[in-house]
Amino acid sequence: xxxxxxxxxxxxxxxxxxxxxxxxxxxxxxxxxxxxxxxxxxxxxxxxxxxxxxxxxxxxxxxxxxxxxxxxxxxxxxxxxxxxxxxxxxxxxxxxxxxxxxxxxxxxxxxxxxxxxxxxxxxxxxxxxxxxxxxxxxxxxxxxxxxxxxxxxxxxxxxxxxxxxxxxxxxxxxxxxxxxxxxxxxxxxxxxxxxxxxxxxxxxxxxxxxxxxxxxxxxxxxxxxxxxxxxxxxxxxxxxxxxxxxxxxxxxxxxxxxxxxxxxxxxxxxxxxxxxxxxxxxxxxxxxxxxxxxxxxxxxxxxxxxxxxxxxxxxxxxxxxxxxxxxxxxxxxxxxxxxxxxxxxxxxxxxxxxxxxxxxxxxxxxxxxxxxxxxxxxxxxxxxxxxxxxxxxxxxxxxxxxxxxxxxxxxxxxxxxxxxxxxxxxxxxxxxxxxxxxxxxxxxxxxxxxxxxxxxxxxxxxxxxxxxxxxxxxxxxxxxxxxxxxxxxxxxxxxxxxxxxxxxxxxxxxxxxxxxxxxxxxxxxxxxxxxxxxxxxxxxxxxxxxxxxxxxxxxxxxxxxxxxxxxxxxxxxxxxxxxxxxxxxxxxxxxxxxxxxxxxxxxxxxxxxxxxxxxxxxxxxxxxxxxxxxxxxxxxxxxxxxxxxx
Length: 646
What we know:
This is Coenzyme A synthase. By secondary structure, the protein is an alpha/beta fold.
């Protein structure tokens, strides 16, 4: 049967008996769809009658949410599939209006509609398929030539009968009290709420978190996406998707699953984000890991003034206004907000003009404290009205999805950090074509920041059969008396850089160029072309010895432009703090000197942005060895599959 890029799976079995049947259903669907699989829940719907079935609301209960989690957990074994459970017809108790009559657009219009509904004779019964196609096209935008398939999964010898009690699913939302909660209990809806995360390589655990938030929200969902400072503590941050890419994937998913919501996606630059300041928010969805952060957000809301931005945090309590143009003192210690009352409008302003003068007083009628601002060109009066305290957000704590197939050093939950670890050793972008090199001869450029463990990786590659060219060794040869760089360097920097025996004193030379960009450029303009020429001679030697893979080990590979000599750039990454520790221990430098050395080099992120393969030595040596062996095996496969001709 044909394989389709996108599909819609309509599940009609009652939820009580669907859970134990789900794995075979997903396996059957995964054999027919290879990219995006939308899932529509319509438990109890029949395709066997004479009347055309219509979409009807499904009340959001804890059972429904638990099933959604169960489905995403089961889909995790089919990681080639982007599964998206559509929530348009799933409504909370406080929001059960009629379903929209218009067709919902999907980012990837389904090419095939599938269902778990079964006919009595187990055939591809045409009337049932026709009803299925009409149902799908009445709900969603589908491809014009829509195919349909009635799935008949192999449930094994003990097929659970429809209507059986099924299995008890673990709770997605952690109960807030020890009192037993009924699975049939409706979920309460809210107008506006928030959820936050890194959302790197959007995976099924993210989708559970986002789906719960979308079900709970009736009007608007604020989604904070971690960026900048909040990313520094992440594992392998160099492999994180850029913010814009993460937001793009997140937006598409959210609009697909519940287009009736308004989504406000913003960068998270501090641990609180809008959840710490927005008075209109009612709930916050957190995971088991971030629950303490949610508690901290609530403490922050209770302890601080309502800020519309960082500028307002400057003047809460006994604050000082941004720009230092005014001060105010609140004897009662009340929480205040700055509001501009204009001639015909009232709005918040981020700052006061420096020429404004101010005086304090008490407003008439309400007794509000205020600041009068004179000489303001746009507004007649500025007041500081007393703001109401922010209310606590209702916290919904979501249980983590377990990763039953996690490997050593990977987390036992479904997580982006594990996915980034799994990327180590993989090819991230197409190799460079090097027609000037002989067919069958492949060159790798190996680089990394100081202390990254690059040289140890080079030795592991040597053990696997690679020919290693050490650029530091070539530099020593070039500096040596009679070497190709010796005379030009002495002429450029003078004889006072020499030892008494005529050998270049590299420490003296280093002190001469360190921190002096002009002097450093003079040196690199001499050395880099010489080292490149020596490296090419070494490559010729490697070919003469019959080596198929040559590795140029060079910390300055990209700065020197030597990527033009290689097919692939491999970068070894390590957290900067670990690199500093290693440099201090290995070279006897102070932490400040080690930090200064790293600052003079390209950062790990800059190197990774131009790399084909990334490795890391931050774990035990045998883990590094396994990474290198994986990268080497994939390299051998690429070489064997590469065209032999020019």
